[in-house]
Amino acid sequence: MILSYLSVLGDAPEVFVILIGAFAFSMLVGLTFHEFSHALVADLLGDRTPRRFGRVSLDPRRHLDPVGSTLIFFVGFGWAKPVPINPAATTKPRQALATISAAGPISNLILAGVAAIPIRLGWVPFFHPFVNPGFASQWAEVWTETPQDLIGLFLGTIVLLNLILATFNLLPIAPLDGFNAAVGLLPPNLSRQFSQTATWGPGILILLVLVPRFSGLPFDPLFSVISPIVNFFLFLFVGDATTLRLG
């Protein structure tokens, strides 16, 4: 993903540095806090499995997967190390599964909300790099007009990346958090039937991510699903700070 912005390196190297910093921060903090939240909530509910594996920690080394993190940085799709849990160790296993699963995406919404505070208060503008790479050089001129613009780009990128991470993980497709949350929330009979689709999940995700990129489809089904949700949270967090939106 970050390679799409190499075109700005010559004209505005500071933009490239800001983007690398924002992506790295979002990866280190966003993914770490996401997995830590799963582990912490499980521990609070009585499941000591994450603690035994050393996952109730904010140390990124406990949570980041080298391959998955690298892919997120360069192609926009990847993963962290899943937190091992045992909901059966809690007093209400099904509710615990849903709560533990929801904790990760909620943590990313919290991070996005905190990063959005200076934007919401009007201290800095809201910018993000998810624009047509062919126009990145033109946008770079806007992003570098003032120090506040660069700060806005840094914070806006963190906001948007964490919103995308939260929304994507809420999809009810295995092994995403939304799938486990649905298994915990659905009535027992439906839950058992739905859980049987878990083996199909990784293949479905690969198709959703890769097929639009290589098939020449005029639309992206995954983007079409998550974009309205991301835009909702963007409006909630940054308000009318700018008309620039995802989509």
- Which outline best applies? globular
Order of helices and strands: HHHHHHHHHHH
The count of DSSP E runs of length 2 or more, i.e. the number of strands, is 0
Main beta-sheet strand count, sense and barrel state: none
Strand content: under 5%
Helical fraction equals 55-70%
What's the number of domains?
1
Let me know the average pLDDT: 87
Q: What is the count of DSSP helices, taking H or I runs of 4+ residues?
A: 11
Structural class: mainly alpha
* Low-pLDDT ranges: 243-247
Spatial extent as radius of gyration: 19 Å
Distance between the termini: 17 Å
Notes on the protein architecture:
The chain has 247 residues and is mainly α. The chain has one domain (2-238). The protein has 11 helices and no strands. The chain has helices at 13-44, 49-52, 66-75, 93-115, 117-120, 136-143, 147-169, 177-185, 188-195, 201-215, 221-238. It is globular and about 55 Å long. The protein starts with 12 loop residues before the first helix and ends in a 9-residue tail after the last helix. Residues 243-247 have low confidence and may be disordered.
Key structural traits:
single chain; 247 residues; mainly alpha; 11 helices; 62% helix
What is the topology?
Elements lengths: L12 H32 L4 H4 L13 H10 L17 H23 L1 H4 L15 H8 L3 H23 L7 H9 L2 H8 L5 H15 L5 H18 L9
